[in-house]
Design goal:
- By secondary structure, this protein is an alpha/beta fold.
- Helices cover 25% and strands 19% of the residues.
- The chain has a three-stranded parallel beta sheet with strand order 2-1-3, covered by helices on one side.
- Helix 1 links the parallel strand 1 and strand 2.
- The longest helix has 16 residues.
- It is globular, with a radius of gyration of 16 Å.
- The protein starts with 27 loop residues before the first strand and ends with a strand.
Length: 91
């Protein structure tokens, strides 16, 4: 029997989680979708919940150019202007 270690390779750069927002009211929330089938309806409903229940000011929905690759550099630069980000997947 062979036991594998699923942890990341040695020397990986650490990171700190983002500071939590005190509230979502008035915030700009970005959603980055992988663009797979079925995501549009879900993210439309998610946007309504964010606006109606949490008072989010703006929801920015973006779709990656390739569902299995990291987000494009330009998209990540744009995300820096958002107050919060949700990475969404679907199938």
């Amino acid at each position: 029997m062979q036991i594998l270690d699923p942890s990341h390779e040695e020397g990986a750069v650490g990171f700190a989680p983002a500071v939590r927002l005190a509230a979502l009211e008035g915030a700009t929330v970005g959603v980055i979708s992988n663009g797979k089938e079925g995501t549009k309806g879900f993210f439309d409903a998610f946007e309504r919940v964010l606006r109606e229940r949490y008072g989010v000011g703006e929801v920015v929905l973006r779709t990656k150019s390739n569902y299995s690759a990291p987000a494009d550099k330009g998209l990540l630069e744009e995300a820096k202007s958002w107050d919060a980000l949700v990475a969404g997947i679907g199938d």
